[in-house]
Amino acid sequence: HREMSVLAEDRGAVRILTLNRPEVRNAIDIPLRIALREAIQAADADPSVRAIVLTGAGPVFCSGGDISTMERTGVKAATERAE
Question: Whole-angstrom Cα distance, residue 30 to residue 28?
Fold first, then answer.
């Protein structure tokens, strides 16, 4: 799932990264977040890439965090994560 949640395409020196979860309006879950980090790191490490364009599959760029996959955490854990 993770490897398909972000698509990468090169057009010359531009790497286009596409969030690929159109069925949930490209909502970001943990696997997508990890795949996006890896895709950005790969683009950054490639000297032929001069720019990155981030887009979303389907009619929507990104609806935000995928709340269906979020878990409730305690105040201490939430504060540590926010900081």
Answer: 7
How many angstroms separate the Cα of 52 from the Cα of each of 12, 34, 49? 11, 17, 8
For residue 1, pLDDT over 50 is answered with no
The pTM score is 0.78
Burial of 74 (0-12, 13-18, 19+ CB in 10 A): exposed
Residue with tokens 């395409």: 9
DSSP 8-class letter at 59: T
If one counts every other C-beta atom within 10 angstroms of the C-beta of residue 27, the result is 18
Tokens of 10: 């090169």
Q: What is the CA radius of gyration of the chain?
A: 15
